[in-house]
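Fold it.
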Amino acid sequence: MINYEHYTYRIIWSAEDEEFVGLCAEFPSLSYLDQNRYQALDGITNLVQDVITDLLANNEQIPQPITQRNYSGKFQVRIPPELHRKLAIEAAEENVSLNRYVSNKLAS
């Protein structure tokens, strides 16, 4: 059973709506607006719980929480040859592998 509290929630301010917006990364089509940021979090959390209940009732697939997914630590990115060369030079100048250099860049 998937626990709705294990999903990835975020609260942002919407200048357009002049309210806080509750979001869930695993359910990108859902949002919840409220003047109070804590109520926005409660709202989106309850909304996700309701959606999961509906999905279960209809035997539909439920997204797995991001935090419970397995990651290999590898992904491929295609970049222009000029950028590849530039990054390789910068990595060599810092005396680290290209992989280490790019990983450090992504982390910062």
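The helical segments are 37-57, 81-93, 98-107.
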